[in-house]
């Protein structure tokens, strides 16, 4: 097989638009499966995971290779739920063209808008699904899409609907053929004028993509189907044309035409521009799709489940065979490949090679991760990886049985191989394991997988906020530690001045002792005792910052004094002084950049005020959106990912990062202290 006989597409769009059913229909129509699976029955090829079957949504990127007219179409079915947008980004990395699946009943959905934005300059076409249903409105859907995305939108179908607006006939304007639910049919007579007018529009769009075709069109005002296909293919490749088709994934109406259009209009890998990459020294280079060049492939997805571990690769240059050894620049390891597979849902069919432009899987690559490049050791290149969005939703996770902490950690590491969009961190300050992802559904699914695959039941809770404590006034205190036992005793005596400072977060320790009242060799012990105390403040047990401690006086015993005695004496002085030094809590403040459509700016600003946020600026992006910049206490941001979705109909996105600590207002301070006390009592 060669690159010319392969098309790589990904199905993207809003959750519930019918992407998985469309992939199923493509397989069934081309005899890739012997039965037509349904999501409600839990028997589709692409939704095979237990969680996908239970929830009736796609969670992971799935693969469905379709053979049509001697062409292999690698169909990648990406989840539509926004919590799994990382899977869509993996699919976009490997596809030459995206098929955005819409829904004639819902019109222009948020998922279509977000997908369009996510694709950047990637070629795309649209398939408006569910046109056969009563009260579906294909024409209104196309009008909405045109109004949003402009002149690139080029419908290549005409439709005939019944009284309930359900489409009964679809006309392929490119090939001038009509289809109904049973297959090919004659073009209805009452559609002739409309078809002619729409074909003229399409010819103009095709001619506009190529100068040679433009000249031909002006001479004859006519283009053949082959010329139209050539022009549209160029337009699709450079992004100036987005063909729009329609049909029904359930009945199969229009699906044959979609397959034909994919073969005709989707650019093959070798027609695409060279990929950006870096060489071993970090210099920028370009890697062209070349079947005869030294091998280079990108790992764009890892499947790690009960069926084994598979590294999904897209071959950019050369070919990959099972007997090869390829170099991984990210790890410095040379990997002996072994068995290669073509994945269809959960089943892998063993194959001999993966040619340039094709997609396939390598089994049991334990040291290879998503985003890695595998290449010829003599011609090292590092292909561009996948940039996933920063996690924006955090929960503390703990096993129900304390002894299973290690088991939980192992399970999360395994799941992270499959889904690199979530992060796990152990917060030493709050003693919590924190899992960060894109939303509550993603984290809920991860917990369900921990239970089903690794036998670990977990509990989620809001992460604790890492507050700080500081003092606002100067206090001097004596700390005297004396203990007499049977033998030698313990004696340490210090006088320490505590005061606030603004130079650094860490405690500044100084000594101003006169006359040797405390010998120099005990100064480090006094400092050590104070630094230990700074880890747990007197208000709510949080670290003490911006503190200056000066040892001014004290006394010692030539026999009984020791390092430990002076450490304990310093601790006594600390615990007596700080409650009198006007202690206050400091809370972490984060910088928020939230991008929202202009119509939601007022709602979002009102919500930020309720969260004690300070809006620092508003920057219109020029495409109907505004970036709001604000500073917000981190304690108020725990549920922001979910709240922003409901406020903006899932159209808002944000990034949030810590910037500094600030004094906590009285009401927030009281609440934080009460929570800390309750937590201490519970432990």
TrEMBL record:
Record key words, sorted: Elongation factor, GTP-binding, Nucleotide-binding, Plasmid, Protein biosynthesis
Gene3D superfamilies for this protein: 3.30.230.10, 3.30.70.240, Elongation Factor G (Translational Gtpase), domain 3, P-loop containing nucleotide triphosphate hydrolases, Translation factors
Database matches in SMART domains: EFG_C, EFG_IV
The keyword Nucleus belongs to this UniProt entry's keyword annotation: no
CDD domains referenced in this protein's UniProt entry, alphabetically: EF-G_bact (cd04170), EFG_III (cd16262), EFG_mtEFG1_IV (cd01434), EFG_mtEFG_C (cd03713)
GO-annotated biological processes: ribosome disassembly
Keyword Nucleotide-binding set for record: yes
Single GO MF annotation: GTPase activity
Tr-type G domain mapped to chain residues: 4-270
Top-level taxon: Bacteria
Chain coiled-coil ranges: none
Record's protein name: Elongation factor G
Organism of provenance: Vescimonas fastidiosa
